[in-house]
C-alpha cells in the first residue's frame, strides 16, 4: 500500500517561503493512502465518465492528464452533468496537462472528462486520509 506525505512546508519552499516554524504555525502534514490502482481512460471532445465509481473509502483523487481538459465530479446514482463543451463551462474544473491535481470528491462519486482541444489520457488515483 503506497502512502503520500504532503507537507505544507514543502509547498512554502516551492513558492519562495521558508520551512522554519511552518509546522509550529498551525500547518499539519496531510497523509494520503492509495485506495485503488490508478485508473486510466482516453478522452476527446465528447464528455466521458470513468466507468467505475469511487469506492466508499475515497475522499480525494489525484488526477493527471496528458492534455488539457475539464473534469466534472458527481455523485453516483444521480445524474452527472456531462461536461458539454470545453469553453464557457463553469461547473467543471480545468486540469492543465502534465500537472498533478488533487480534488476532494464525494464518497461513491464519479468523474467525467472532456478535452479542451486535443484528445488525451486521464489518470485517476483514489486516495483517503
Looking at this protein, list some descriptive labels.
1 helix, four-stranded antiparallel β-sheet, 129 residues, globular, mainly beta
- The secondary-structure element order is EHEEEEEEEEE
Strand count, sense and closure of the main sheet?
A: 6 strands, antiparallel
Taking Cα atoms only, what radius of gyration do you get, to the nearest Å?
A: 16 Å
Distance between the termini: 13 Å
CATH architecture of the largest domain: Sandwich
Number of helices, where a helix is a run of at least 4 consecutive DSSP H or I residues: 1
The averaged pLDDT comes out at: 74
How many separate domains make up the residues?
2
In quaternary terms, these chains amount to single chain
Helix content: under 10%
Strand content: 35-45%
Structural class: mainly beta
Write down the CATH class of the largest domain. Mainly Beta
Report the principal-axis shape: globular
Query: Would you report the number of β strands?
Result: 10
Low-confidence stretches: 1-21, 84-90
**CATH overall fold name of the largest domain:** Jelly Rolls
Secondary structure topology:
Layout (H helix, E strand, L loop, with lengths): L2 E4 L1 H7 L15 E5 L4 E5 L4 E2 L10 E6 L3 E7 L17 E3 L5 E4 L4 E7 L4 E9 L1
State the gist of this model.
The protein is mainly β.
Structure description:
The chain is built from one helix and ten strands; from the N terminus they run βαβββββββββ. It is mainly beta and 129 residues long. It has two domains: 1-34, no CATH class; 35-128, Jelly Rolls, CATH 2.60.120. The chain is globular, with a radius of gyration of 16 Å. The model is unreliable at 1-21 and 84-90 (pLDDT under 50).
